[in-house]
Amino acid sequence: MKRKLLFFVNPQAGHSEIRGSLMQVIQIFTAGGYEVTVHPTSAPRDLTRQIAERAAGYDLVVCTGGDGTLNEAVSGLMQLPPADRPPLGYIPGGTVNDVAKTLGLSLDPILAAQDIVTGREFPIDIGAFGKDRWFVYVAAFGLFTGVSYQTPQEDKQVLGRLAYFLHGVKALGEVKPIHARVEFENQALELDVLDGLVCSTTSVGGVLALDSLGISLNDGQSELLLVRDIKNLIDFNNVSTALLKSDFRENENIVSKKVRRVHFTFDTPVDWSLDGEYGGTVTDVEIVNHQRAVNIIVPR
Q: Residue 255 and residue 229: Cα distance in Å, rounded?
């Protein structure tokens, strides 16, 4: 009896390779012993809703698109009881593809499909943002929020990762520090923050390479990074160098901690991005790491 595969395609994702390879990808899944059902995503959150309603009846769910598409897929899976969550295959088709880089997934749709058929399950941590939102690799506010969801889609497609960097530099002069109270692991900080990240990835926005921090994708801990307000050019140079080198030791402008749970309180509403897409505006939010919550297929 053939196993059942539910295949979601996002036609609006950054790169068009999947559209030209769609039939070959389906053939690979079929040859691998799957009965394939294809569902083109039609609107924001459609993928989340479809997975929450249908995924429990399938042996494997596959999505193609960018990091935002992956976020929608995982958000749907997290609405199911752990025992009902099928493994997830991911064919990267976005602009920056932070998760794909971290997991070593191929950016070639054909190779990615073959890896899904022959690969192995790898459990990853998932972050809860409040009570009903989820993220795979990063929740952010401040500078990187604007870098992500405010970058025009046409710029993302043409310029790729450079678009994020260019818009980030432009936004630096526009971002005002955010006063925050941050509570974690029996500690509390009150500070003015230029940029805040809670992440479980070695790449953020295709710009920050965090592989030197010893980040694990399934140890139940997230990396908390807070960039304090920059007062002068010397501070700016120090922070820029530290971010590019991922070396935050003895840098008084950057807070770097490993956390399982972190609580943010703000004086005024603050915009957040989740996995590179707009995640809402809050004055109070708790972020919790759910260890090994979803199995994603990676190459052997």
A: 12
Provide mean pLDDT across the span 145-152.
52
> How would you classify the pairing of strands 138-142 and 261-274?
antiparallel
188 bridge partner residues: 183
CA 149 vs CA 68, 163, 247, 255: distances in Å: 10, 11, 27, 24
pLDDT score at 173: 61
Which is more confidently placed, 94 or 130? 130
Which residue is associated with the tokens 């509390």?
188
Structural domain count, the chain: 2
Tell which of 118, 150, 165 closes a domain: 118
180: domain CATH number is 2.60.200.40
In percent, the amount of the chain with pLDDT more than 90 equals: 51
List helix spans (H) across the chain.
17-31, 46-54, 67-77, 98-103, 109-118, 143-149, 153-159, 161-172, 233-245
**Res. 163: pLDDT tops 50:** no
Residue-number span of the structural domain to which 186 is assigned:
135-292
The residue-averaged pLDDT of 63-90 equals: 94
> Does residue 188 sit within a domain?
yes
Percent of the chain with pLDDT over 70: 78
Q: Other C-beta atoms within 10 Å of 295: how many? A: 16
Rounded to the nearest angstrom, the gap between the alpha carbon of residue 124 and the centroid of all alpha carbons in its chain is 12
Q: Say what the pTM is.
A: 0.85
CA atoms lying within 13 Å on the CB side of residue 58: 25
The domain boundary residue, chosen from 51, 85, 118: 118
Same domain, 273 and 234: yes
- Residue 299 included in any domain: no
Residue positions annotated with a catalytic role: 277
Say which DSSP state 299 is in.
Answer: -
